[in-house]
Design brief:
globular, two-stranded antiparallel sheet, alpha/beta, 10 helices, 275 residues
Length: 275
């Protein structure tokens, strides 16, 4: 409890986290990340503070208020499961410059979020779910921290193709020489730094993700024009105990039928939590 008070700097807010409520509630919080303070929200189900919690990790250029992340938070809430969603460094309302963001420092942000969640009063067990680049981070977080800290993981359209793309000298609209990386490029209208490109090229994703021995569900739309189905199958092969759910025709953000994706994720997590 003292840790929570120190992080939040508010006795009243600490009491709110520890107390029970008769209705669903979202509490805005913040905590120190790898590149400064991270803006976050804890979403509680009605009448519950003692319950499982899921860390929700957004994708490249996105935020904690992303369509997929908010949709999953709402579905978890309906099943009696709380969630902690936050903006990675350089995204949304969090500190840091976007061009200083890398996947390794997002993994460090996620570790800080995990430590924060573990100290929240009433949290009984923790899982992680990530979308797109957040799915890459979620798998690496699980692999690095293990089943004692992460009960289960959901990878929604994990953007593992980024490594091959960058090795081939492209990232979205950016084109560059991978043997002589520029100081920065513009991708999706945002400045991406050399360190992001360099670390992505050498990212030990499959080795790290494969170290996780807990339950994993990979959710992939067959109509995804950003992440091919073949990428999801490569992730499944790297994590032998994982299960792959293919959603016919759905795109990268499941805009045709979001409920199909978030229902699959929440059903899996509820099952692993014993809810």
């Amino acid at each position: 409890m003292n840790m929570i008070k120190a992080i939040l700097g508010s006795t009243a807010l600490t009491a709110a986290l520890a107390g029970e409520a008769s209705f669903a509630e979202t509490v805005n919080v913040s905590f120190e990340g790898d590149h400064g303070m991270l803006s976050a929200a804890i979403q509680y189900p009605a009448g519950r503070r003692s319950c499982p919690m899921v860390l929700l990790l957004h994708g490249f250029t996105s935020s904690k208020d992303d369509f997929v992340i908010r949709g999953l938070a709402d579905e978890l809430e309906s099943r009696g499961i709380s969630s902690l969603r936050f903006d990675f460094n350089g995204h949304g309302e969090s500190a840091g410059r976007f061009e200083d963001m890398t996947i390794p420092n997002e993994v460090e942000d996620a570790k800080k979020a995990l430590a924060y969640a573990a100290a929240v009063p009433g949290v009984t067990v923790i899982a992680v779910a990530g979308h797109s680049q957040g799915g890459v981070v979620a798998a690496m977080l699980a692999g690095e921290t293990g089943t004692m800290k992460i009960r289960a993981a959901v990878l929604l359209s994990p953007a593992v193709m980024l490594q091959d793309e960058i090795r081939n000298g492209r990232w979205f609209e950016a084109r560059f020489d991978p043997s002589n990386l520029p100081e920065r490029v513009i991708a999706l209208g945002r400045p991406v730094g050399r360190e992001y490109l360099r670390t992505a090229m050498t990212l030990p994703f499959y080795e790290t993700a494969g170290a996780y021995k807990g339950p994993v569900r990979i959710i992939q739309g067959t109509g995804d024009d950003l992440v091919p189905v073949s990428c999801a199958k490569r992730v499944q092969k790297a994590i032998p105990q994982s299960e792959l759910v293919l959603l016919p025709g759905l795109n990268h953000s499941y805009t045709q039928n979001l409920s199909e994706a978030v229902d699959s994720a929440a059903e899996f997590l509820a099952r692993e939590f014993g809810n």
